[in-house]
Every structure is written in structure tokens, then in C-alpha cells.
Amino acid sequence: MRFPEFIRAPGVLVVGEHCFSELAENFHFGNVECLKHALSKGLGLGIVLGGAIVKLPQIYKILSSGSVAGLSVASFALETASLVISASYNIRGHFPFSTYGESVFLTLQNFMIVLLLFWYRGKPLQATLAAAAIAGSIYALNDPALVPAGLLATFQAATIPISLASRVPQILANSRNGNTGQLAAFTVFNSFIGCAVRVFTTLHEVNDSLLLLGFVLATILHGILSFQMLYYWNTTPGHTKSYGFDQLHRKSKQL
């Protein structure tokens, strides 16, 4: 069986000539390597598409509430720096777009969030400086004359501690405040799922231990944020969650 070219071409583009023929045309589902390759590509493209919208609920929540309460500037700024480096490293490494495309979209969305964080805190000058710093970094990191490949690899290695540092301030802020403030649940949960899937696609498609380690650590930290989102689900700013004797005492008074 052979599909018309307008159907076949996109499939070949995604999984390659051999695997498209094996799976879609010859129905050789026993070809484990092609099945794994197709799964990796499918998941990767799904994460890229999800990355294009994953932070939009966070942006909407900030704009609709007019508040950035509970959101850590340090967390989003460090995450943006990590994303800019990672996107540049993948682009210059000529890795498949399906293995990193969401980092490009996330960079643009984080760019907007960082500006909103400064703006709603009444710091327009810092917002302008942040915009200039992000734009300048993107330009420099994608110019081999300014940032040689060896230096870019060093920066990519640095994204591992940066990634750790970017999540920790938000995790600590949530614990300190006893709530997750203006964090958007959709963004938190989908970021966790996306990082977990990236561990699989990186193992299968990209032979780069730096990228793999980064995604493993990001999965763990996003998992902690997801747990906090569930733990503080019904808690609003100004109210903390309590358990134990205090909770039993309140219930006994109600009775």
C-alpha cells in the first residue's frame, strides 16, 4: 500500500522514509526501532505544540488579575536565561526541532512574563533593561563569532545549576506563603509532563548527556511544583493550609 504524496510527504518528514514505509504502508509493527522512533517523534512534536501555549494561561492569569502576587522574579528570570541558552545550543547543534522546539516558544512566553513581573511591581526601567538583556543574549548566543561553540557548551552545562536555581525560589516562595499565588495550574502540570517526555525523546534522538541531565533535574523540580499545586489547591493568598491539632480544634468548635 502506498499513500498519495500529499499524505506521505508529511509522514516521511516526521519519521523518515524507512519507518513510514515500515509502519504506515507495510504494517510491520514488529519493527521495535521504528515504533520507538515514531513514538519519540510524536511525543516530541506534541511537546513542541504544547510549548507554544503552555505559558499563555500564566500570562492571562497575570493580566486578568492585574497581580503578580506569589510569583518569583528570580525564578522566571533564571528560567528564561536557561531557555535562551538551551534553544541556542540546540539550534547551533543542528538537533531535530522536535527535540527542542518548545524551548523557543517558552523563551518568548517567559520574555513576556518577566516584563509583566517588573511592570506590575512598578519597575518599568527594570522591565526595559530585562528586555534589552534577553534580546542581546539571544543575538550573541546565536553568533559563533561572539560565542564560540566551546563557550556555548560551557553555558549549556551551566543551565543545569541555573535550572535548579530557577525552580527553587518559587518552591520556597510557595512554602513560605502557604499558597501558590498566581501560579497557573495548567502551566505547572504541563511543564512537568513536558520535561518527563523530554527525558525519553532526548534518550532516543539526541546523544547529549548535558541535555539529558538537565531534563531529568527539571522533571524532578517541576514534580515538586506540581505537588505543591495539588497540596495548596484550595488555599488562596492570605490563607495558609494547616493540619493536625489546629484543624481538629476548628472542627470541634464547629460541632
UniProtKB/TrEMBL annotation:
Subcellular location per the Swiss-Prot or TrEMBL entry: Membrane
Record SMART domains: CTNS (SM00679)
Pfam families: PQ-loop
Chief localization: membrane
Membrane topology summary: Multi-pass membrane protein
Database matches in InterPro entries: MannP-dilichol_defect-1, PQ-loop_rpt
Keywords, in A-Z order: Membrane, Repeat, Transmembrane, Transmembrane helix, Transport
Residues that span the membrane, as ranges: 68-91, 103-120, 147-168, 180-200, 212-233
UniProt GO cellular component terms: membrane
Signal peptide: none
Family label: Belongs to the MPDU1 (TC 2.A.43.3) family.
Name the record gives this protein: Mannose-P-dolichol utilization defect 1 protein homolog
Organism annotation: Tieghemiomyces parasiticus
